[in-house]
Amino acid sequence: MAAARKNSPYELFYWPGIPGRGEYVRLALEEAGAPYVDVARERETGMDEMMALMEGEGTRHPSFAPPFLRDGRVVIGQVAAILLYLGPRLRLAPKSESAALWTHQIQLTIADFAAEAHDVHHPISVGLYYEDQKKEAARRAEEFRGARIPKFLDWFEAVLAANGATKEKPRLVGKSLTYADLSLFHTVDGLKYAFPKTMGRLLRSRPLVTSLHSSVGKRPKIAAYMKSERRQPFNENGIFRHYKELDR
Amino acid sequence: MAAARKNSPYELFYWPGIPGRGEYVRLALEEAGAPYVDVARERETGMDEMMALMEGEGTRHPSFAPPFLRDGRVVIGQVAAILLYLGPRLRLAPKSESAALWTHQIQLTIADFAAEAHDVHHPISVGLYYEDQKKEAARRAEEFRGARIPKFLDWFEAVLAANGATKEKPRLVGKSLTYADLSLFHTVDGLKYAFPKTMGRLLRSRPLVTSLHSSVGKRPKIAAYMKSERRQPFNENGIFRHYKELDR
After folding, report:
1. Does A175 reside within a domain?
2. pTM of structure
């Protein structure tokens, strides 16, 4: 799993138009300064290539859904699996098996959190519009704001504290930045966009999560990326959506 | 990651009373004939030990939720991460990085499928009873039966076909049994319990998934386990629940 010098860029396949789950992969690639192509956005034939790969053309390992990453002959789907693969290659994961697995476990919990954030506006079906499940979404949002967000944030705060994190050096695992830090940054960022009132209230008593979020956002490569055209803004087609009626 | 001979049993921590997500880990341990303790069921102090570990007492890596596994000083949560760890140790994962990662990716997709199966009866909140979200569950079940189960089953059928699987030798990855085969077995088993009519209809046109399910169930160690007291039956407290009104 050596971080060999790469000549050909990584190819990221994800729906254009939203940060979405692809953003967890983009942030790792951006922080590492790794060359990559956001295929469906940057290549004219990108969407066709993506759909063909999902149908199993040109790969023995077709993914159930985007995002997926191609690195030469390897194609990998599922955000957490992609980051498990990229982690050591981008120097964004610890080396020991135990610490690497713990980083992965945190990532999987972030994935669960993001899935719940998505299901707030789609409690009935991904096949229906939000407008067709608004009533159910209002009920789910109440539980998400009141019970789930606090529970997840408390867990991340505890993980940071157990790692000896400080407001000056807020890291989830060890002393170096990992992909899990980047992913928690993005999740908090998305939740602040979707639930500004709720998050404003909840973050006040989670100082370590708060400072992880602000310190990652200030990293030179992340800050430059956020201002670039490569970064797509949050909107109401993605995971983290702002509907005023769901935030209180 | 060698499969060293173990003296001390693995310790599995999971809620007693349901197969639940713990079952994915149990099936791997059972198939491998690995010694393990189902702590919360088998030890008088098991529940207290489990809750203490979740609170961070006695581990630097407290899990967000059960199941988690303790192997000496290592504590790992999240089913897919546990199986990533156990796979090579129990000889239930392929050796090459690429094939091991693909097995893991399939496992993560199984985890997504199981989460959706759970949310059918809990579309609004895990903190409320089914009875308090029955109306929403009925809507979600319709989508799950009509769109999601077929989509997932089609993907697994395609993965099996792309692997050259046959009805006689239905394997998801390579030619040997992996933890992903065991996990798909359990998921199909759970769905057959929860949605007998739907699954009876859908499995007819998915011969590879069907034969994977029946062939895993006939493996000597799995069959013996299923008849033992270690196996807890499906019921209406777990992931896969049978509510007549949700199946058609």
Report:
1. yes
2. 0.97
